[in-house]
Amino acid sequence: HSARRVTAIFRATLTVMFIVFCPKKTNRTLQRRTRAPPPPHRHIMSKGTVVLAYSGGLDTSCILVWLKEQGYDVITFLANVGQDEDFKAAKDKAETLGAKKVFIEDVRAEFVEDFIWPALQANAIYEDRYLLGTAIARPCIARKLVEIARREGAQFISHGATGKGNDQIRFELSCYALYPEVKVIAPWRIPEFYNRFKGRKDLMEYAQKHGIPVPVSPKAPWSMDANLMHISYESGILENPKQHAPADLYMMTKNPEDSPNSADVLEIEFKNGVPIKVVDVKQGTSKSSPLDIFSYLNLIGGNHGVGRIDIVENRFIGMKSRGIYETPGGTILLKAHLDIETFTMDKEVRRIKQGLGIKFSELVYNGFWYSPECEFVRHCINKSQENVEGKVQLSIFKGQVYILGRESPKSLYNEELVSMDVQGDYDPCDASGFIRINAVRLRHRAKLSS
Fold first, then answer.
1. How confident is the model over 346-388, as pLDDT tens digits?
2. Number of neighbouring beta carbons within 10 Å of residue 403
3. Of 115, 127, 195, 341, which has fewest CB within 10 angstroms of its CB?
């Protein structure tokens, strides 16, 4: 008993001394013993997976983070359609911002073969001037976007198109046509989003707050969309239709005044209405793959300042907008295709086909690439191109494309028949009756009017 008492007294003495001389350690020990256990981990349920059409720019980077804030798992998709882009930097940025997966797909070859070539066969021009560079690219991008969404089991797709433009319509109509069950998240049409981000300043503040890298160089006072076919410029200072485009705006073409003082001469060979070979006559070089052909024509046309237009157009959504476009390669091909088509196509077939081309242009501009009516029109146009083959020689010089000559094994041109020096199978007397028949209604109308 005495030994146990001594031990107890000794322990009590040590405890008192520890409390007196080490009060901080004692408090921490007591806190550890009395601290409440941590709450169980709360798992936040994801709203689903969304595939975001991503550009790597400020807008879609902010949208990526905002979608994550809303509770979505985000997969980003960036299409290489020929724009000048640092794709590795864009991929790294998306991963840093929390993208679940990042897809970067090179779709340049299919863009040319599946979208630019059908537009060329149609001689597609919207409102007589616009070669539809942006409108043609959207269904190409949307097709790959849907492919990824289906493969990844994503229930949503999202994009950064504004609520006033055509692109929102083009993207979404294409996606619904290819993936009817998909749901679209369009932030610029969601009041919670567009009331929060009323301008670039709000986006910049949000980016800085969430660690989103912001552009170091000042933004140009206009917006730009680039792909293999063209570059478009709009908004900002260009919204004043009287404002001249600044000289440093153009990125794809030289000022014609500064272009070479000697022409480039090309020969473009067509089959079924699409180019299969381009030869640089002076250099003796040639290109034969669709992507190489188009890229080379961009290079030659851009060097000579070909394909610049400044227009006001009618948007599908119901307002007029001003756009400036550079389409060097497309402009060269349009001139050449028009020439070989007229040379090889029956007059009445071509008249019907011209109407189909106008309809095709409107459908593409308005976002109906994947509609049954557009599919029908493309089929008819493709049928019309069966005999459109041959070679066109042309000169590219100081912003202009000059046709020099053409040849075709399926030409409908009869040199003997049209010659002023050879009678051929044509009897000039037949023209008298032809003229009289066509004059019947004109003479009758004149008599009634008098």
1. 999 999 999 999 999 999 999 999 999 999 999 999 999 999 9
2. 14
3. 195
pTM: 0.87
Is 258 annotated in the active site? no
- Whether 167 is a known active-site residue: answer yes
Looking at the structure, do residues 181 and 306 belong to the same domain, yes or no? no
d(CA 139, CA 316): 16
Q: Is 11 a catalytic residue?
A: no
Within-domain flag for 310:
yes
Q: Looking at the structure, tell me whether residues 188 and 255 fall in a common domain.
A: no
CA distance 327 to 185: 32
Q: Are residues 83 and 181 in the same domain?
A: yes
What residues make up the domain containing 117? 49-210
Pair 186, 138 in one domain: yes
Annotated catalytic, 223? yes
Q: Letter for the amino acid at 444?
A: H
Q: Give the tokens for residue 155.
A: 């229930």
327 neighbors 371 (Cβ within 8 angstroms)? no
In this structure, is residue 423 part of a structural domain?
A: no
* pLDDT tens, position by position, 93-116: 999 999 999 999 999 999 999 999
Q: Which of 55, 61, 158, 167 is catalytic?
A: 167
| Rounded distance between C-alpha atoms, residue 311 and residue 324, angstroms | 6
Of 108, 138, 143, 322, the active-site residue reads 138
Helix (H) or strand (E) holding 232: strand 231-234
* Backbone Cα Rg of the chain: 33
Q: What is the CATH number of the domain that holds 195?
A: 3.40.50.620
List the catalytic residue out of 55, 59, 170, 321.
59
Q: Are strands 72-80 and 101-106 parallel, antiparallel or unpaired?
A: parallel
Per annotation, catalytic residue among 92, 114, 223, 411: 223
